[in-house]
Amino acid sequence: MRTVLYGVLAGLLLLAPLAVTSYGTASAQSQVSIDGAGATFPFPLIDTWRVEYQDVRPNVSLNYQSIGSGGGIRQFTEMTVGFGATDAPLTQAQRDALPGVAVHVPETIGSVVATYNLPGVESGLHLTGPIIADIFLGVIDRWDDPAIAELNPDVSLPARDIIVVHRSDGSGTTFVWTSYLSLVSSGWEDEVGSGTAVQWPTGIGAPGNEGVANSVRNTPYSMGYNELAYALTTGMDYASIQNQAGNFVEPSLDSTAAAVEALAGTLPAGDASWENVSLLDAPGEDSYPIASFSYILLYKDMSTNPSINQQEAEEIVRFVSWAVTDGQEFAEPLEYVPLPEAVREHNLEILRSLTYGNTSLSTAVVPEFGVIAALVLGASIVGVVAYSRFRGIGAGQKGPL
Fold it and tell me: CA-CA distance, 255 to 277, in Å (whole number)?
């Protein structure tokens, strides 16, 4: 037993440099502030990371402005923050406008839901993509419209106008929503199209996921769109939407995860175009049709951004690598889908490619706890074997080490 314990201790001593390299010693580090801005879609998760990361790196504070994907892309382009966040991948025009090469790092997966405030009707109203498009076009403007009634024969629908609520700011959630409507409705694609900001044919605008949620909650007979976490945390009702297989699917972790399974192993390189990456209307009996990645944006050469120094760049990479690995344990309680293993590994590969000028930032990439645990186990076994042989030789036994 003593041999095993000494072996484990030897293994841990072997791994001590790894722990210092990965997480650093907070007491020996100066205080560092990480600034980011962008999407409201992942804000509940990012805000949880902000709190939990204090236990990992007490000397690092995270400041995140939940201002919408459009604002995040703008501040990232203007280099006023260390990282941007967006639900909409950069377009080629946006990439061309950047002062340097950018990388996309998927940070989480979520779903956008059709939220509504319909007195007497709870969650689960059946809707199709084309019907939702017609509602947001103003073509269907009554709750008791025959098209809605046909899908919900057991629901008593009121003879009231539908009050549409949409985003008033540049928004990745809007990009996901309008991209889906363009995919399922030629009328929507021809008249409105997709984007982080569009010319809405009808409705009232509100800023942020929070603003839309508050407007829908406070406006009877209204309909809007929100990230699932916002709908759940605010107690909103939301629709079950017909998917590609013809099934009406309630948004959930499982139905959102089903949409990403087929795509996880086919993602582009971090510095390539992600414009055509989409989880919308994915095949599968149980796939929820309005799912999306949300991304962190970084410069491949982080010295491109004059607002951050090398230490800050290292801490940003260290934080992001933690967020997309160990930090994923906080996703599910907030109704985000944890990144599949293939996506996590892809992210770490992207992060290892980052530099600050001519200096690689790969040593700031934090391995997952599971990886560290495996290394500890392996090193401990080596320690046990080595210690046993050492004891054997000390007792007069012969044999090579």
Answer: 19
Tokens standing for 171?
């928004």
pTM of the model: 0.78
Strand partners of residue 167: 206
Residue listed under structure tokens 């809605």: 148
Range in 84-88, 168-172, 221-225 the model is least confident about: 168-172
Q: What angle do CA 61, 360, 66 make, to 5 degrees?
A: 30
Q: Is the pLDDT of residue 378 over 60?
A: no
Q: Partners of 302 in the beta sheet?
A: none
What pLDDT, on a 0 to 100 scale, did the predictor assign at position 389?
52
339-376 CB burial, b ≥16 within 10 A, e <16: bbeebbbbbbebbbbbbbeeeebeebbbbbeeebeebb
Is the distance from CB of 166 to CB of 212 less than 8 angstroms? yes
Maximal CA-CA distance, the chain: 95
Rg, Å, the chain Cα set: 25
- Up-side HSE of residue 196: CA atoms within 13 Å toward CB? 26
Write the Ramachandran bin of 207: left for phi over 0, alpha for psi from -120 to 50, otherwise beta: beta
pLDDT at 400 over 70: no
Spatial separation of the C-alpha atoms in residues 357 and 59, rounded to whole Å: 24
CA 222, 224, 229, 230 torsion: positive or negative?
negative
CA 362 – CA 348 distance, rounded (Å): 9
